[in-house]
Structures are given as C-alpha cells and as structure tokens.
Design brief:
Blueprint lengths: L1 H13 L18 H18 L5 H7 L6 H17 L18 H24 L7 H27 L9 H5 L7 H11 L1 H18 L5 H21 L5 H15 L3 H8 L17 H32 L11 E10 L2 E2 L10 E6 L4 E5 L4 E9 L4 E6 L6 E9 L2 E8 L2 E10 L5 H4 L13
Antiparallel strand pairs: 1-2, 1-3, 1-9, 3-4, 4-5, 5-6, 6-7, 7-8, 8-9
Helix pairs in contact: 2-5, 2-6, 4-5, 6-9, 6-11, 6-13, 9-10, 10-11
Keywords: Membrane, Transmembrane, Transmembrane helix
Protein name: DoxX family protein
C-alpha cells in the first residue's frame, strides 16, 4: 500500500503536478484583448473610488483633516452639476457627510466615475494597444486595493471590538415599540443589545484586515473580507441601511482580489484537485529597497493599529458607553400632570399631557399621551436643582424647571407661556426592562421567547 502511494507521488511529481505558479494574472506572458480591456477599466474605476487613500492619513497626522478634501469636493460638485444638467434631477441633492452613503449625489458619483473609467479605457486601449500584458501594474494595483480594504476592515473592526459603531440601547430605544422602529433602527438595536456579538464581528473584520496585509495570507484574508462584506451588503439591502453602495463596492474589491486565485480555490474546495503552491515574487531585487519596504510596512501596520484603536477609545469616551451621562439620565413615568391647578387625566388622545420624560445622553424627549415624542437639548444644574430644555427646532423656545426628589417621586415645576405646570414622575430603572435584566443562561429548560 505504502509503495503504491510512493509511486503515485513520484508519478505526480515527474508530471509537474507540483510545479509552482506565480502571482501573475495567468501563466501566459501575453494577455488576451478582453483581459487587457477589463483590467484597464477596473484600474481606473478602482483608483477613482479609492483615491486620495492613503494620502488623507497625512492630514490626520498633521491635524489637517481636510487637506485632500479638494478631490472629493470637486467630484461632488461635478456630480451635482451632471445630475442637474445632464440627468435632469429636479430635486435638491444633499451634500456633505450626513450618515448616508446612498444619497442621490453618491449614485451620480458612481455613474460619473463609471463613465470616466469607460472613456479612459477606450483611450488607453487605443494609445497602448501594442502592450502584451500588465503583470507588474496589476501586482501594484492589487497591493493598492488590498491595503485599502485592510485599512477599511480595521476602521470598522476596531469600532466594534471597542463597541462604538453600535454603542448601547438608548433610553429612547427601550420605550419604543417594535412596530414604530425603522428597519435600520431594528437592526441597530439588535447589534447594540449584545457586546459579545458586536465584538465577535469586529474581531473577524480585524483578522481579515491583518491577513490582507501579507501576500502569503491574502487569499484567506480576501475570502474572509468578501464573506463579511457580502453579509453586511445583504443586511444593508434587507434593513434599508444607507451604506448599500459602499458595502457593495467593498465586496466587488474583494472579488477583484480573488480573481487570480479563483481557479485554485475552486479546485481545492469544490473539485478536490491538487492545488499547486504559489511563488511570491518580490517587488524588487535590490536589497536596500527590500529593507526599506519592510520598514515602511512595519511603520504602516503599527500606525494602523495605533490610529484605529486610539480613535475608537477616544470615541468611546466622547459619545460611546463611557461618555458622561446627564445628571437626570433615565426614564421618568409621569404619574401626575397638573396644569394651572387642574389635574389632567391620562387620556391616550391628549397631545399636551406628558406620559414620559426621557433623558438620554445627547438629548431629552417629552413623550405625550398620544405616544409622540418632542426632542430638546437639556442643561441640568444639580446645585440649584434646575432643568432647562431648549426646543431643537426653535432655539428661542426655552423652558426652565425646578426639580426635587422625595419619597421616590421626582417633581418638576415650571411656568411656561403663562401656564403653571407641576409634574410628578417616578424614575424607571433600565434594569426593570426584561430586555436588560434577562441576561444569559447556559441552561434553558424551556425557550424564553417573549
């Protein structure tokens, strides 16, 4: 039996089954016309989407975050002009960061760079029609794309390892009914509930980013990246989260990196065939240049970890779980509402009587009996016991309360627009909510699905 195996291995070796392959796009020295045209398009398209990476990190280092904003600003204005004058978009196209990556401007931007990439591909194909291949440029482009993906995976990953992207369920989330949540809000609350799952997903992204940094592990890193980003893309599509364009683009970038290894992956995972080893060709034959590249890589990796971890820690202290909470932080169930000496009954149709006072980290909300919530900015003085609230939509609309606490009741008194108000409320602790106090159980004799 062993001799048969030895003969079989010898036969395979003699017939070059163990021949090494390189990182070229193929083993041929000449690319087909289709391959060359496809490469030219993706080169321009990827570059336009990724640039000015990594130059904008220079701005962050020297404290000038807008150092390279001219590029995105120029394309933004070009997209708006094309949207208005060529695509005949009549409504206002929002600009600037607003939390959405799926604005009309973003879609027009993708249209613009696709057209630019197509035009550039045609011109490039005419001017450079005699070139046989782009092996070296392709290697550099893959390096550019995988480092961009690695930076991105670190950025998102560390914001989950240190729970910041999904911080914690707010006081407003706890009182909101499931039916009144947006699809995005439902998904966000799902992630915010569990730090364990959030950190797990973050570690997967960070590990994928680490593997992307090294050519020996780039296939594994890319497979992880595509799996993670496609899952995020499907979540964005399923829960109406406005990062559909970007997550889709990152998925495409991952697939682009996998293209040279698709056949090897298929042979190994699906067809149960022998997969040859791959030779990692150096970027240069000069020893000094090699050492310089290694040094630059070490500095880059250290910077990546420091930048993202430090940024996440600072963010956690500014607006995450460690951010300072207002003195009256909590949910207050109104038990008595007196206006001008008259007790107002808790009618569910009342648009004036308070049902709850919700004090969150960054805003205060007054929920009336009809379940509507009005949002305010708050300032609390714990020395003189005053609460001042300012309408977010009208900065001149200011109301000042004097509050006190006695016998488990909070009393808020104010004179507002000639009306005298006296409100008594009982604070409901977060731990009173089933979602918070249920906890984790290794053993469940019966499902606890409420």
């Amino acid at each position: 039996m062993l001799s048969n195996i030895s003969l079989d291995l010898a036969f395979q070796k003699n017939h070059s089954y163990f021949m090494e392959v390189t990182q070229d796009i193929s083993e041929k020295t000449t690319w087909s016309i289709t391959t060359k045209i496809t490469f030219r398009f993706f080169f321009v398209y990827m570059f336009l989407n990724i640039f000015p990476f990594p130059l904008y990190y220079i701005g962050s280092i020297i404290g000038e975050d807008d150092l390279f904003s001219f590029y995105s600003d120029w394309f933004e204005q070009l997209s708006i002009w094309i949207g208005k004058n060529i695509l005949s978009i009549k409504y206002e196209m929002p600009t600037g960061p607003n939390g959405s990556g799926d604005t009309t401007t973003d879609y027009v931007f993708q249209f613009v760079i696709t057209v630019v990439a197509l035009v550039a591909t045609v011109m490039w194909s005419i001017l450079d029609r005699k070139r046989q291949s782009y092996d070296k440029i392709f290697l550099y482009l893959r390096t550019f794309v995988r480092y961009y993906l690695a930076f991105t995976m670190f950025s998102y990953g560390f914001y989950k390892v240190i729970p910041l992207q999904f911080s914690e369920l707010s006081n407003f989330d706890l009182i909101k009914t499931v039916g009144n949540q947006s699809p995005m809000g439902l998904m966000w609350n799902f992630m915010e509930f569990s730090d364990t799952y959030t950190r797990f997903s973050g570690f997967v992204e960070v590990i994928a980013g680490i593997f992307l940094l090294y050519r020996r592990t780039v296939v594994l890193g890319t497979i992880l990246t595509v799996a993670v980003m496609f899952n995020i893309f499907m979540m964005n599509m399923s829960y109406d989260i406005p990062v559909k364009l970007y997550s889709g683009l990152l998925t495409i970038m991952g697939i682009f990196l996998l293209i040279p290894d698709l056949k090897r992956i298929l042979d190994f995972f699906i067809l149960n065939k022998v997969v040859n080893s791959k030779t990692i060709l150096p970027y240069t034959d000069k020893e000094k240049t090699k050492k310089a590249i290694i040094g630059l890589k070490i500095i880059t990796v250290l910077f990546l970890f420091y930048y993202n971890i430090n940024d996440a820690i600072e963010g956690e202290e500014k607006w995450g779980k460690k951010a300072k909470k207002p003195a009256l932080y909590g949910i207050y169930e109104v038990e008595s509402f007196v206006k001008n000496g008259d007790i107002m009954p808790p009618l569910t149709t009342d648009t004036i009587r308070w049902k709850r006072l919700i004090v969150g980290k960054r805003s205060l909300g007054i929920q009336t009996m009809d379940e509507k919530i009005k949002y305010f900015n708050e300032e609390t003085d714990t020395i003189v016991k005053t609460l001042q609230i300012t309408n977010r939509k009208d900065s001149t609309d200011i109301q000042r309360f004097i509050y006190k606490f006695k016998d488990s009741l909070y009393t808020f008194e104010s004179i507002y627009k000639s009306d005298t108000l006296k409100i008594e409320a009982k604070k409901k602790e977060r731990e009173e909510f089933l979602l918070i106090n249920r906890g984790f159980h290794w053993i469940n004799e019966f499902p606890f699905n409420r």
